Amino acid sequence: MLLPDIRKTCVISLSNQSKALVTGAAGFIGSNLVDALLANGKTVIGLDNMFNGHVENLDSALKSPKFELVKGDIRDMDMLLDIMKGVDVVYHEAAFTSVSQSVKTPQLCNDINVTGTLNVLNAARIRDVRRVVFASSSAVYGDSPVLPKTEEMPLKPISPYGVSKVAAEAYCIAYHQTYGLKTVALRYFNVFGPRQKDSPYSGVISIFISKILQGNSPTIYGDGTQSRDFIYVKDVVKANVLAAASEKAVGKAINVASGKPTTMNDLTRLMLKICKKEHLKILYEDKRPGDILHSYGDTMLARSALDFSPDYDVARGLEDLIKLTGKKSI
Ligand code: UD1
């Protein structure tokens, strides 16, 4: 599909309406957010450079007269200024998303995640955007063994990716304090759900789903006692929508987590059960180098500042995901 050249189209059809801008709109989280905003009757501009995004993630959105997709890059400040005219809320999901790749190309990660976010904030300030919601990550906590991860903990990122999210969060908070731009940073824990691609750089659930549904055994790295805090993408979308409205959240960085650890052993058994593939053997390989043992987030601030609590636990999220995967509607 051909995407419009931004400088020519300049969001003509959607002008004069209150609009949301979703950066990274064709990606895993961005596209789920776009669908939810459109379902809530919002007018939405989706921005994506299509490096990691897939236009088919927006199949349904593109049928809506209230949606416009722009191909562009958050490193292009002129373009951002152009598309933010009349925008009410920016949901900034576009990012260099791979932790391992950030180790290989730290400069590129910085350009996209730090300079790109700074561009988004600058354009939002100039265009008088009412709210910017920023997608941060639990990677800001690094490998600190303290549990649960609370927002006041010292941040100790260990990867260029983690550093980039710390820096971008700090810019969000500073832009609120210095310029009065209303920003909220959301620290996503281990997000899973429809449209998360199965690749070596993807989360464990997307990798295991593909394997299990093809009748292959999943491989756990380590003894499977390590745990993570899995949060379903529909809850991440809900947290974003709440963050766009809550005054108490402004100027803060807030965990978006379930608050409950799930071990890899429990996760894998649950997935085999839901997929009705309990006969498949679970394979074990050496622990992944640099893997942290446990991670789960404190959810108090999300409750008090956003009135957020997840609707999906891991089991319900997996059931929904597997149902959608079966229907091929994702
Ligand atoms: C994510 C990042 C990781 C980063 C960490 C810290 C990705 C894909 N992962 O890892 O690079 O260091 O955040 O912020 O970006 N697992 C298996 N089998 C598999 C795949 C994974 O057993 O085939 C295990 C892993 O060893 C890990 C758990 O599943 O213990 C979760 O892995 P993953 O989904 O990659 O998330 P994080 O470990 O949190």
Model regions low in confidence, pLDDT < 50 over at least 5 residues = 1-13
Number of domains: 1
Query: Percent of residues in helical segments?
Result: 25-40%
Strand content: 15-25%
Tell me the CATH superfamily. NAD(P)-binding Rossmann-like Domain
Give the radius of gyration: 19 Å
Distinct small-molecule ligands in the complex: uridine-diphosphate-N-acetylglucosamine
> Number of helical segments?
11
CATH topology: the name is: Rossmann fold
**Strand line-up in the sheet with most strands:** 3-2-1-4-5-6-11
Give the class-level CATH name. Answer: Alpha Beta
Structural shape:
globular
Q: Specify the biggest β-sheet.
A: 7 strands, parallel
From N to C, what is the helix and strand string?
HEHEEHEHHEHEEHEEEHEEHEHH
Which structural class do you get from the secondary structure elements? alpha/beta
Terminal CA distance reads: 18 Å
